[in-house]
Amino acid sequence: MINYILLSMVFFTISIPIYEKENQSFELGEEVNIPFYSLATLNDKGTTLVFQFTDLIEESRCPPKATCIWAGLATIELKVDNVNSFALSHGDLSRRSQGPMTNTATYLGYKIYLKKVSYFQDTDYRMKGKYTITIKVEKEKNQH
Fold first, then answer.
1. pLDDT at residue number 101
2. Strand order of the sheet with strand 104-107?
């Protein structure tokens, strides 16, 4: 019976996808790289925002070593404070035919910019666990 329980625990542990859940701190105006499913925390004068790259929604950019007639785009899901999610895109946003896509979001008076969606090597294309995003956060400018 104990062998069955141990074997079940090993099987269950192996079947769960493991993503490294790093948490790094960054400052206002600084670009930060966030690997898939990892966290980045911004502390700004008493306000703490936690960002997590939770999904690669779309990857239509030109595959490695291919020739394409348009640049395409990558769309990701960025979760903020484990509550709000934003779909942000990087690439040729002007040629998108389905709904407006954006590379910015606003949350609690902060402007979030998606600067880059990247993967390390050619074989990582469309493998969401191998992607990293680069964001930058600034205070939203007051408009008078």
1. 78
2. 31-35, 131-139, 110-119, 104-107
